Structures
1.
Amino acid sequence: MYQYNAFDQRFVEERVEQYRDQTRRFLAGELTDDQFLQLRLRNGLYIQRLAPMLRIAVPYGLLTATQLRALAEITRTYDKGYAHLSTRQNVQINWPELRVVPDILADLARVQMHCIQTSGSCIRNITTDQFAGVAADEIVDPRPYCELMRQWSTYHPEFDWLPRKFKIAVNAAQADRAAIHVHDIGINIRAGDDGRPRFDFLVGGGLGRTPVIGSLIREGLPEQHLLTYLEAILRVYNRYGRRDNKYKARIKILVRAMTPGKFRAQVDEEWEHLRDGPSTVPDEEIQRIKACFVPHVYEDLVDETQLLARERLADPAFNAWMQNNVAPHKRSGYAIVTLSTKATGVPPGDVTEEQMDAVADFAERFGFGEIRISHEQNFILPDVPQKHLLAVYELASEQALGQANVGLLTDMICCPGGDFCSLANAKSIPIAEAIQRRFDDYDYLHDLGPLDINISGCMNACGHHHVGHIGILGVDKRGDEFYQISIGGNQAKDASLGRILGPSFKRADVPDVIDRILAVYVDNRLDGEPFLHTVRRIGIEPFKAHVYGVAEPSAGEREGPAPRMKEPPALRRAG
Amino acid sequence: MEDEWTLVIEGDAAPGIIAPFAAWRKKPAGAGVWVEGDAEAEEIGPLVAAAPVVAVRFPAIVDGRGLSLGALLRTRYGFVGELRAFGDIIPDITEYMHRCGFNAFVLPDLEQAEVAIACIGRMSDHYQASVRQPKPPFQEPTTRRP
Ligand code: HEM
Ligand code: SF4
């Protein structure tokens, strides 16, 4: 975990006072709404449909128990006792009063946190693998580089007023858990032939109205050049990105208009001026930051294969949880646990102050006091001794955090949608809930295997619907809420964008449609073949046919348990 | 604050006048020049380097192109004269401009000019290199490590 030094601490404190003064001037009428808007956005404050929303930065999703307790305390003191884990690993609170936001920022600064650049057209929180530093498949620990980039991007003199927001994600493991193909810049870190880290740059990926997979423009950059190369990309974007139309202002549009080849040439030309300049990072600085991320003092434990086998046999629910929520750790005898926030009836990513306090306790009792937030909106306990997994499972279950659904159909990504967001075409939370209610049989979910359902309430794609294996998008049809469904999207290494099935559906029909899609999958899958691969192999036609009732699913007998056909329950209004 | 320069949005260049780039090129002697924030630094940079004043127009608070232009004029084209920002400017933005090499700002009134001065002085340190601070803090170990 990065520890602020006196420089970092003074920086956040002065930034709080700066914002306090801006708020004061706004309330005194010295700044207009439009002027203050831009200043508050750079401190994470949106004004939403119902109330302001404050987005708190959680750099690369990493939190200490102390910080999580402070967040719980903030929701108690200033808010309604709950918070929302966002798809960019941040935390949002929905009801802070504009005039007390400076006090919230001051409380955050006390625990080395801030809201800097969590909104506005600037470089946003840099995200990475939620298992960084502990994943068994990790090649390089990305966290020190994320921190280096966090510092570089914080209050940058030239790049805080970009054409549009700018999102950077970093992956440094075999599997890509950070969705680097759909970010403005996706960085892949790997080991070079000399064992030193090498950086590959994907540029111009993104979702929103125009979903694009990023283009590779630089391979194998050595670490000392990281910041100068980023400066070159950002300078080209700042100068040439479109500013006349906000829907064409992301870097993906510029890269496409110029072509990736020409864009790369322009960046290289700019970089020639900057490379080896003063922003070249000395090894000393990299070592200084790395020293904050030294591995914890792990005990010498052995894998608890037999104990776990016994415990799993005794409790099928624990067995399912082990299968879905527990990932392999770098160290023997330890495991990485994902605590799912996706309980039926709870908006995905919403957590209460009690849950936050409990997770902070777990992190201290069963780890080194660290917590992660994943972009799938779950909590991670990164260092749980295997012998305590059952205890963690039981304690988490008492807090409604024991759902064994990580990576399964009911572990959905879902934006706030029409319940909270003024841009929405349709609600999204009730859709998530209806799907969770329909598919609540763990055996069936488990049989279906890895399945991402992502839901956005409009084409801004906050819920990443394009890269869901099944994507659901709220659309407006003459004032009515409808949902367009796509399949075949994927956010990982072999990223792809979903293809739209056809005309959109009424809300009440969505669970049935999902049911039909799954029936085609179950009928057609080869042994052990996950949903995504079946879609890629057989194409979308059979799905289309069954969903729109043109024909029955193609191949013969159904295997596996049939979906539980229940009446969709009446939809509760969320929020 | 008194201003010895008069900026003309359209019109000819003359001593004491800040004229649009096209007019200034015809008669640069004693005149200043103004450009839009999206002017090509590569084209104008070598030409305006010797002018006493270069003014850059910021059409909107959110338009940061002039920041890149300012930084390029200072660091790549060696411009050492007055770099002036005008247009849609609030005091809080002057801090960014200052760090990108601007040293004059056109604000609506004296009160705002005072706020701007306070804004510019508010943060003690920054993480990056800039025109004002040619080296990032990590190149200067003593300031970086407390
Ligand atoms: C409730 C108020 C919200 C509003 C008004 C809002 C607005 C927007 C808009 C306008 C965009 C499109 C930006 C563009 O394409 O340039 C966007 C993108 C995005 N939003 Fe939100 N958002 C909200 C909440 C959220 C929440 C709660 C999350 C996290 C769960 C989120 C995550 C994202 C992400 C990840 C993108 C990026 C998609 C991309 O790469 O283009 N948003 N948002
Ligand atoms: S996707 Fe649309 S509806 Fe959902 S939060 Fe983003 S802007 Fe709002």
Note: Chain A touches chain B through 43 residues (CB under 8 Å).
2.
Amino acid sequence: MNKHYPCITGHCFHIRGTTFYLVSGMLPNIVKKFGHWHSQAFLEYWCCLDYLGAIHIEMLPINPHAWQQQRSCLKA
Amino acid sequence: MDLNSALSRALGLNICVWAICLLSFFCQLHSGKLLPPTQDLKKFDPQHHALFSHITESPTQNGTCNLHLLWLKTQKACRDNVWIPCQEAPLDPLHTIHKHYIKNKLQINHPIAAYWDSQGMLVTLTRSKFIGVSMKFFVQ
């Protein structure tokens, strides 16, 4: 078995697609809705978590108040 | 994607596998939502797995399409739509599905996961076959 691809299951393309959108900068709640994830279980499947964490911290705006407003609009 | 260069486009099966890869990747779909458990077309249940007729143009007019899913395991028969986004070639799922539809000479009421086998029979791509073909090329 190739060390880079240890196992392929029916979930692999789903999970890699989710990771692709997160790495592309799409908001996690949009990715969750788009991917029909109905529980927080999808957090367990996130790949490249170190990389994703860095990206999402980098994307934080300087003005936290504006960020809160943006989140409120998205929830509405 | 290594699979893209590894899959020969001469085989209907490979074109089908590539279309399902891109569809499940960009639509974040579990392969079970697209692939039936048996390759026998007579046992295919259109209420559980997608047909070409379930793909419709999106009202957003940005080139995306909708795939209408009639069955979701987590929602128990609740209908839902997924968006099929446009991407640049050769990773555009819409272009690949169209190519699969044309090259495999399929019809609008056929399952998306269908192809003509070596004996000239129209069969559906099962999950085990899909994983088997994908694995074969990934481990090369």
Note: Chain B has a mean pLDDT of 85.
